[in-house]
């Protein structure tokens, strides 16, 4: 499908984020199992539940607008999921792995935040106010998840533990920052 109108662009972007959400829903259980921190594992589990709701929200938008999503694979999320898989395979389980998982998850959240922000603007511009409100709800959920991940890293002690892992002490400036 060639993109010739704002409606075409909206459908393309909605199709892309739908694919991204589906890929993330498949990846989150693996991230949860890889996390050593119980709080991080719970955060991944909670986000999986939220992600399933976001997929249902997109399904509702598609039904209400009587549109068809394109069968595309979100290349951006595919790359982010591949990066997370690499972290799990190459970083030994522990605080350092948890810090790296948080960093990778935040990359995915930022991708989703950018996508949903764009979709909200597009939906309003082409007169899909109800869809824009529902997409904004998802946008706010993604921002809240990003904030929770930051709190786990900084106040939850994941970064501090990672910086001291293996008996190595580092200056605070070498901590993984989110």
TrEMBL record:
Q: Which InterPro entries match?
A: DUF892_YciF-like (IPR010287), Ferritin-like (IPR012347), Ferritin-like_SF (IPR009078), YciF (IPR047114)
Regions crossing the membrane: none
Query: Which Pfam families does the protein's record reference?
Result: DUF892 (PF05974)
Q: Where is the composition biased (Polar residues)?
A: 147-167
* Residues covered by region (Disordered): 146-178
The UniProt entry's coiled-coil ranges are none
Query: Cross-referenced PANTHER family, in alphabetical order?
Result: PROTEIN YCIF
What is this protein called in UniProt? Ferritin-like domain-containing protein
What organism does the UniProt record list as the source?
Answer: Frateuria flava
Traced from the root, the source organism's taxonomic lineage reads: Bacteria, Pseudomonadati, Pseudomonadota, Gammaproteobacteria, Lysobacterales
